[in-house]
Amino acid sequence: MRYFNLYSSILITKGANRILISDLQRNNSELQSLELYEIIDEFKTNSIEEVFAFYDDESKEIAQEYLGFLLEKEYGFISDGDWDRNFGPLSLEYVDYSNISNLFIERNELAIPTNLIQSIDNLQISHLVIY
Length: 131
Hints:
The chain has four helices and seven strands. By secondary structure, the chain is of the alpha+beta class.
């Protein structure tokens, strides 16, 4: 049996009418139909042969085109047998060790008091936005 595996650097975001395929490694994204999302979702748990068996002849041809598209764009790869289970998903967990990571300040005056600047520096705030 053959399995289709998405690369860990490919993120699929499902919207109301379409999906967004984001290639984090190449820094590009593109919109596709929701049908492609359903097929990608089926590939996560079933072999290519099992997925194609779900469809009638006309729909199977469309599913094969989608698989060809995914391979052509290098969004994934095909593996033989069950060894594809060794590819764990990319962790999306983010840990920020700062007490405060983002600070938004709204001021009427352009000048910022020195004691406020010193406090921001002491807290090691990573991102500062001043309105």
